[in-house]
Every structure is written in C-alpha cells, then in structure tokens.
Amino acid sequence: MAEVKLFGNWASPFSCRVEVALKLKGVEYEFINEDVQNYKSPLLLKYNPVHKKVPVLVHNGKPISESLVILEYIDETWETGPSLLPKDPYERALVRFWTKFFDEKCLPALWNGCWSVGEEQEKAKEESTELLKILEGTLSDKKFFGGDTIGMVDIVANFISYWLIILQELVGFQVYTKEKFPKLGEWMDDYLNCNIIKENLPPKEKLTAIFRARFEAAAVTK
Amino acid sequence: MEEVRLHGFWPSPYVYRVIWALKLKGVQYEYIEEDLSNKSQALLQYNPAHKKVPVLVHGGKPVAESLIILEYIEETWSQNPLLPADPHERAMARFWIDFGQQKCRTFFSFYLATEEDKEKETKEVLEILKIIQDQALGDKKFFGGNKIGLLDLSFGWLAHWFECTQEVVGIQILEHSILPRLYEWTVNFKEEPVIKENLPDSSKLLTHFRWLKEKFSSPNPK
C-alpha cells in the first residue's frame, strides 16, 4: 500500500491546504505536527533541507515541498475525487496565475499589514485593499473561484476566509469588511460552509491564543 | 490553427524563456516589442493585474507570467516534452523553478549592491548558486537530464544575463574555478541551437544593465 505522510503544522494555512486536498481525493495519510517556530525535527530537515519549512508531503519515501507544488502533485497522482485544477490548458493557466497572485502579492501584503505599525501598516493597508479589489473582481458572479465547486484557487485563498478574520479582530488591521467586499464576503460564507473546509480548520480559540502570544511578543521587541 | 502572439521587451530574460519554449516546440508566433515606458493598450488589456511582459496571446486569450506561460506551452503543444512524465520528477522540477523565483530578490540586491554591501550580497548569491549546482543540477548535463527542459529555461538567465550583472557589479562568481558544474551547464546550455540563435546582443545588454542600475540607484527612482 502506498504510504503518504504529511509534515505540517495545525495552525498553518499552507499545511491546511494540503490536508484539504488529500481529503478531497480520499487519500489516507499520516499527519506529523511540526512545531516549526520552536524546533525543526531531523526528519523535517532531511525532507526539506532547502527551506526547512512545512508542509512537506512524503509519498513512498519521496518528499515534496512548497504547498502549490504539492497541490499539483496530488492532482496528478490521485484520480479519485474532484480535480483540483481544470483540464483545459488555458483554464489551468488562469488557476496558476491567481494562486501565484495570491501567494506572491496578497498574502505578503496582508500578513505585513497585520504585523506592522504606523506608516508601514498604512502602506500595507492601501496595497492590500487594491489587491483584494482585484480578487473581488475575479469572482465576478461565480460562487467559488473554481466555479460551482471549490478548486485550487479557493483552497489556496483559505487565509483570507479564516486566518485574516481572526488576525483583524486581534490586531485592529481592518482591511477586509463585508461592506467593502461583498462578493468576497459571500464567497467566505459559502466556502466556510463546505464540509471539507469547516471540518479542517484549526480551532479558533487555539489559533487566536497563538496569534495573541506572537503579537504580544512582537510588541515587546519593538 | 490559432494565432500565437508574444508581447515582449528585448532585454528581458523572462521574455526569452517563452521564446525558447515556443521555438523548442516549433510553434509559429508573432512577436510584438513593447516600449515599457509607453505600454500598449493591448498589453494593459491583456495583463491588467501586473501590466508586465511577457504576455502570450493564443487565439485571442492572454496568458501572463513567464513560468505560467511555460507550463501553458508545455500543456498545449505536446511535441518535444519539456517536463518529465513522472509526477514526482515533475514536482521536483516545479520545486526548483519556484526556488529560482523565490531567490530573485537576492540576485537583484546583488545587482544593485553598493561598495559596502558587495561582500555580503556576493556571499548570499554564492550560497544560492551552490544549492542550485549541488542539489538541482547534481551530476546531470542539464537540469532536465540529457536534454533541456523547463527548469533549464527558467535558469537560462544565469547563462547569459548574469554575465552582465557580474560585469556591472565588478565581481565574478559563476566561474569554472568556483562553480565548475554550473559553469559547464551555462556552456552546454548556450550551445543548444535554439538558445544560441536566440539571445540578446551582449554589449547592448550590458549597456542596458548599466543604465538600469543607475536608474534604480538614483535618489528619485521612477
């Protein structure tokens, strides 16, 4: 039987993406939680010597790192369950464009906005607002980024549906509101209503506590 | 057969990745040179999110971001495959393509380095090139194995553009005495007919790189 292991972290949106994908495909796997902030295990360092991060998928002893690379691998390897990417090359290019846009532009801007202060935070807020507007535009009249059902872009955009909302409440970085971004708001409701998504989110209280601790530690060092 | 057009800018290594892929697949296309200080309406319409080149337009449908265009070309034209057939090997190719992308900023910092920063920036670039040589290339002739593939195309800028970067900074890193196997790869890569016949003129490129560095380093960069 094929052996699948996932080195991840319960709080990480990147790790969560891979778990959702594996579950959508009905793939049995062993989850190994790595407390990467505090300690990197010898196995993690062996399987991801280049970046030393999670998630890392190990399939039959062979490791794969970087969540977007892992998601494409899962889609190509297991034909059970729904496809994460469409079949048409042009549609696939659009999915790759938006997942890249999200990870290279939206996520860093939103993340920086949450953890910075003063002028830097103002700048991040402006940038994030523009980027969220673009995302809102791509939804147009679709229920999900993937159309009628969730696809890879929806899975990758998980951060804004849950982690961002928690962070906004905690640190007072209000960039997303349902009034400003109604389509994203509707998307979030539908997204979080999907069983596969809501059953695989980190517990809110635990996540809030972790973020609060990090926020307070960061405030002290500033 | 549907029309293929490529919007590009002559000094851009990203544009050349696409040119090489199209030529390796034997795809006929029309090239449109863009003046980036005066972007065409077509470009702004085809790539509103980033407003950058390259953009490939196939049958009227635009694909932006060079690495995404490479995957689109690979999936649309099946002759002369540029990615491995095995899913794990494909994932490894995508991992290293992503690695190169993630490290862009370091190379850019090296390019813009002031006298004070040069030593630090050189050390960082050398570390990355060693990883690329030892872990991505290994003992292979090309990153793709016996013949060039998408990963070679994505690193193609190291074989030609990086020479200009080193010249402008005044420091040689990618030399046979320092990185023998990677250096040999640059020689082998540029010997490939499609590559050899499709490179921008070195002296024009060097002039451009010097001008660009001054522009970025001036007190009020645009």
Describe this entry's structure for a reader.
The complex is a heterodimer of chains A (222) and B (222). Chain A is of the alpha+beta class and 222 residues long. Chain A has two domains: 74 residues, Glutaredoxin; 133 residues, Up-down Bundle (Glutathione S-transferase Yfyf (Class Pi), Chain A, domain 2). Helices cover 59% and strands 8% of the residues of chain A. Chain A is built from eleven helices and four strands. A four-stranded mixed sheet of chain A has the order 2-1-3-4, covered by helices on one side. In chain A, α8 crosses α11. The N and C termini of chain A lie far apart (51 Å). Chain B has 222 residues and is α+β, with helices and mostly antiparallel strands. Chain B has a four-stranded mixed sheet, covered by helices on one side. In chain B, α1 runs parallel beside α3. Chain B is globular. Chain B starts with a strand and ends in a 5-residue tail after the last helix. Classes of the chains: A alpha+beta (222), B alpha+beta (222). At the A-B interface, β4, α3 and α4 of A face β4, α3 and α4 of B.
Key terms:
heterodimer, A: 222 residues, alpha+beta, Glutaredoxin, Glutathione S-transferase Yfyf (Class Pi), Chain A, domain 2, 4-stranded mixed beta sheet, 11 helices, B: 222 residues, 10 helices, 4 strands
